[in-house]
Amino acid sequence: MSQANLKKTFLNKSEIKAMDVEHKRKLSFNIGKYNEVVVKGKQQFSDLDNARKKAKNIKWKTMENLDQYLVEFEQNFIRNGGKVIWANDALEANEAVLEICKAHNAVQVVKSKSMVTEEIHLNDFLEQHQIESVETDLGEYIQQLDGEAPYHIVTPAMHKSKEDVARLFHQKLGVEPNLSPSELTLVARRNLRAKYTTAGIGVTGGNFLLADIGGVCVTENEGNGRLTTAFPKVHIAIVGIEKMIPSVDDLNLFWPLLATYGTGQNVTVYNTIFTGPRKKNEPDGPEEMYIILLDNGRTNLLKDPQIRESAYCIRCGSCLNACPVYKNIGGHTYGATYSGPIGSVITPHLKDFGEFKHLSYASTLCGNCTEVCPLKINIHSMLHYNRTLAVKKHETDFTENTAWRMWKLAMTNRKLMDIAGAGIKTKVVNKIFKDSWGKRRDDLSFHRSFKQLWKEYKNVD
After folding, report:
1. May I ask the CATH architecture of the domain 44-296?
2. Phi, psi (deg, nearest 5) at residue 113
3. Which end of the chain is more exposed for a tag (fewer CB within 10 A), N or C?
4. What is the pLDDT of residues 210-238, one digit of tens each?
């Protein structure tokens, strides 16, 4: 899709969602629940501000020396019996998964929740090669049944009510209508349990990579991640290279921060570290384990000092929950895997900048995203930087360039402003902004200029 079409689609979807009262009610309800519990989660920290600063410093150190940590991780993971695959882009990652599936004659894989597999569209790729990929996280399972991408980084089905899910299960699975949430969960459990034992391969993402022990951390609340990796003979973890932290000892800081800012918990229910395939004395686990280290545009973030900080993100989703724009238009409107403020920062760099630079304008620059980020990532400043970069790259269109030139000319020339009287200003402004500001508001009216008001205030001629 072209740059113009992506932008137009975004604006059209935004218009629909911003005016959808029921959509906003569901979103407000779920974010309201989050806001209630995250306050309690923060109480576990005796000095939250210091914890956030320390975590940011650790990620700063890691990203500044990522090349060394990646090599250290690879060496330790191989020493543990695992296999490392480096993938420059989505195609290389998908083809690596396909090759492993073919080598093991696997026609079905089970997946725990993973945004990076959504990023590379793994499910669609495997389906094209007649391999079934089953989402085992309840929220992801709901979205897969509905043919939708995740709506939120942490809560994939945040935009759905329990009635919506009951209706979906009735339509897709043929169960009784109007089942309760508990009954719906049992239906999903019954359908998914058999998949774990028949799937040849389990696929996960990774919340953190641990350089010192060659470990992959998977954090979840349902236990599906452990089932995904316990029964299949092969475990494939696909993880972005930016997920690296130096040591297993750093988890006592990062696990509580992720849990608190992600879901308001003190710590997530299931936190697992995988260091390779099962050993001789271990009763379960995969016979083989692969880690696919994915770039897919991440080095674009790292090479630009102005945007490098975005790679510190631990994908907690707190900036989405705080963003006034996200709370009005929702996750699917962005047309990208990563939505909200952090998604608007990184997506133009992970993908084509010209095609996705419009996302950086979907922000009030209020700074609330930066305020709530557990790692104090300066998100709103990077959104502003992306806008500046768009101008420098000449990615702005003729209309926008002309409008700003006219604005600059008017704002730097007092005589021109005085010549354009209140009546002219009123007509011009209302005509220019009739489809944006004026669509649902009364016309603006300029009765007197600032100069006139100042004279009146000072009582001078």
Report:
1. 3-Layer(aba) Sandwich (3.40)
2. -60, 130
3. C
4. 999 999 999 999 999 999 999 999 999 99
